[in-house]
From TrEMBL:
Membrane topology reported for the UniProt record: Single-pass membrane protein
InterPro entries: Cadherin-like_dom, Cadherin-like_sf, Cadherin_CS, Cadherin_N, Protocadherin/Cadherin-CA
Name of the molecule in the record: Protocadherin beta-18-like
Subcellular location as annotated: Membrane
GO cellular component terms attached to this protein's record: plasma membrane
Organism: Neomonachus schauinslandi
Gene designation per UniProt: LOC110591234
Xref: SMART domains: CA
Length: 670
């Protein structure tokens, strides 16, 4: 990526690279095991417990598993014994074709703690294929002027086996004119050449039929034959010659079928049929014949099948030009397959842990996965990333494996679930990317105490209430979940030991509703306060407190009480008034009290009945009894006044008192 592009890239990227780790994470030297191809399924290959030096119980406890580089389950790890068992019959030719040795790379992965052991499985070849010639009939046209010692190349037999099980020898049926000579190609494959022992005489014997036999080195050996037909021709003394000894071409792997690869050309100085050339492949493999075709007249080579750089990166094609006299010239074509970015990166999840507790330690392993891109060069180089706003981090571990770990503390109450997108992008043109979505949930830990909606509550209750009356509620919430969020309410012991709280109120432990247990009396208890607690059901449990103040509201349940004149049942008290008293003269004052409060205790006075109406009056607000007019001789001596004292409650309550007034002469005002 160019520096300018990196400045605008906001996604954290982790470049794929092979990390060679030591210590306890990765075994430094790989183990090597071998198995013969086509061995029966279930065969024991080795025992990893002996190689690692662990106990069998560690295999299950540490989550041991076997992972091959191509993600195919060739082997199965028996976690009860530690044996590596063959999970499928292996075909060496299908796995490695002609590559020798045939090695399958794999790792033994332990998840907890994370540890890798590298290993190699060598698949040994058995002699299960017979040599076969691509052509059942070989036609050779040889001029009668051909000198003894001249050699004639023939296509080699194909044997899918390798090593000693491949083609090792060729034999020719007995005849007086030819014998075989074995040659080795650049890839050490043997092919036969037919050598002429003496001059041919077309007039004596114009044609020969020989049997060519190919034998492999197996035990017992296998063999295949082809018929060699030799036609003796007239003299031809010039062999074809190609323009170049080697043609080098590059072909993109996405070239369509029938695309022109190259056009070869050879010349022959002879004339007539001896100068007429025919182009063909020379002892090439089956893969080449399936992929390419050559036009015998024009020398144009076209694609017969699609190319795949990831399977084969180059081809060496041996070609020959044969004239009408069977003389040949040889050349080679080196075809380099050019990689095209036609493979998107691949993501394979090995393990995923979800949910994870919110108090997880930093760098806790959440997921293990591997990535690969089958292309080469920049097309196969990859960048691995996740979103930038997550408390997680990608860390490269071993080869193409990554771990997703926690980077920042988690808080379930802030976010209980994370949708993580793992994006792998190659550096090819155009860039290809693959995304894998995982969901990681955060499990709750009891880290939040219940919180009351108010730190203090004030409740008002009218006195004379009925027992078990619902007087109010307190409420607390807990940000945790499950049992950690289930709140239980309780009354806490009061600070005042004289307060009989247990007989006054109770609380519903489930919903925080408060109830008065008995009837309250404002005159006896006007207010009281206590504390309530809210505890969750976590382990350990967390709790909080709130203050509740209960105010008893007065009810008009007390009638006024007259203090003066006294109402003790003794002889009535008589008030003396001089006849010379003027209007407004203070006769006496009725004094009364009310046990209630507020407007229930506001008293008013009223004269209900008098011996002589209009002579006396009572002031409504203070209870003073005064003369309403001047006294006269005609007024009676004795008077009886009935005064009503009434409070301001709803409904109002009242009391009455009788006053006795005596008018006297010669009485001076005190």
């Amino acid at each position: 990526m160019e520096p300018r592009e990196r400045r605008h890239q906001r996604i954290r990227q982790v470049l794929l690279f092979f990390v060679f780790l030591g210590g306890s994470l990765v075994c430094s030297e790989p183990w090597r095991y071998s198995v013969a191809e086509e061995m029966e399924i279930g065969s024991v290959i080795a025992n990893v417990v002996k190689d690692i030096g662990l106990g069998v119980e560690d295999l299950v406890a540490r989550g041991a598993r076997v992972i091959f580089d191509d993600y195919k389950p060739y082997l199965l790890l028996d976690q009860q014994t530690g044996n590596l068992l063959l999970n499928e019959q292996l075909d060496r030719e299908a796995l490695c074709h002609l590559t020798e040795p045939c090695i399958l790379h794999f790792q033994v992965l332990f998840e907890n703690p994370l540890q890798f052991f590298r290993a190699e499985l060598w698949v040994k070849d058995i002699n299960d294929h017979t040599p076969a010639f691509l052509d059942k009939h070989i036609l050779l046209k040889i001029s009668e002027s051909t000198a003894p010692g001249t050699s004639f190349q023939m296509d080699s037999a194909q044997d899918l086996d390798v090593g000693k099980n491949g083609v090792q020898n060729y034999t020719l049926s007995p005849n007086p004119y030819f014998h075989l000579k074995l040659q080795a190609s650049d890839d050490d494959r043997k092919y036969p050449e037919l050598l002429l022992d003496q001059f041919l005489d077309r007039e004596k014997e114009p044609e020969f039929r020989l049997t060519l036999t190919a034998l492999d080195g197996g035990s017992p050996p296998r063999s295949g034959t082809t018929l060699v037909r030799v036609l003796v021709l007239d003299i031809n003394d010039n062999a074809p010659e190609f323009e170049r000894p080697v043609y080098e071409v590059q072909v993109p792997e996405n070239s369509p079928v029938d695309s022109l690869v190259v056009r070869v050309s050879a010349t022959d100085l002879d004339a007539g049929i001896y100068g007429e050339l025919s182009y063909s492949f020379s002892h090439v493999s089956t893969d080449i014949r399936k992929t390419f075709e050559i036009h015998p007249i024009s020398g144009e080579i076209h694609l017969k099948a699609l190319l795949d750089f990831e399977l084969i990166q180059s081809y060496t094609i041996n070609i020959q030009a044969v004239d009408g006299g069977s003389l040949s010239g040889k050349s080679a074509i080196l075809v380099q397959v050019v990689d095209v970015n036609d493979n998107a990166p691949e993501i394979v999840m090995t393990s995923l842990t979800s949910p994870i507790p919110e108090n997880s330690s930093p760098e806790m392993v959440v997921a293990i996965f591997s990535v690969r891109d089958r292309d080469a060069g920049d097309n196969g180089r990859m960048v691995c990333s996740i979103q930038d706003d997550l408390p997680f981090l990608l860390k490269p571990t071993f080869k193409n494996f990554y771990t997703l770990v926690t980077e920042l503390p988690l808080d379930r109450e802030s976010q209980a679930e994370y949708n993580i997108t793992i994006t792998v992008t190659d550096l090819g043109t155009p860039r290809l990317k693959t995304q894998h979505h995982i969901t990681v949930t955060v499990s709750d830990v009891n880290d939040n105490a219940p919180a009351f909606s108010q730190s203090a509550y004030t409740l008002r209750v009218r006195e004379n209430n009925s027992p078990a009356l619902h007087i109010g509620s307190v409420s607390a919430t807990d940000r945790d979940s499950g049992a950690n969020a289930q709140v239980t309410y309780s009354l806490l012991p009061p600070h005042d030991p004289q307060l009989p709280l247990a007989s006054l109120v109770s609380i519903n432990a489930d919903n925080g509703q408060l109830f008065a247990l008995r009837s309250l009396d404002f005159e006896a208890l006007r207010a009281f306060e206590f504390r309530v607690g809210a505890a969750d059901r976590g382990s350990p449990a967390l709790s909080s407190q709130a203050l509740v103040r209960v105010l008893v509201v007065d009810d008009n349940d007390n009638s006024p009480f007259v203090l003066y004149p006294p109402q003790n049942g003794s002889a009535p008290c008589t008030e003396l008034v001089p006849r010379a008293a003027e209007a407004g003269y203070l006769v006496t004052k009725v004094v009364a009290v009310d046990g209630d409060s507020g407007q229930n205790a506001w008293l008013s006075y009223q004269l209900l009945r008098a011996t002589e109406p209009g002579l006396f009056g009572v002031w409504a607000h203070n209870g003073e009894v005064r003369t309403a007019r001047p006294l006269s001789e005609r007024d009676a001596v004795q008077h009886r006044l009935l005064v009503l004292v009434k409070d301001n409650g709803e409904p109002p309550l009242s009391a009455s008192v009788t006053l006795h007034v005596l008018l006297v002469d010669g009485f001076s005002q005190p």
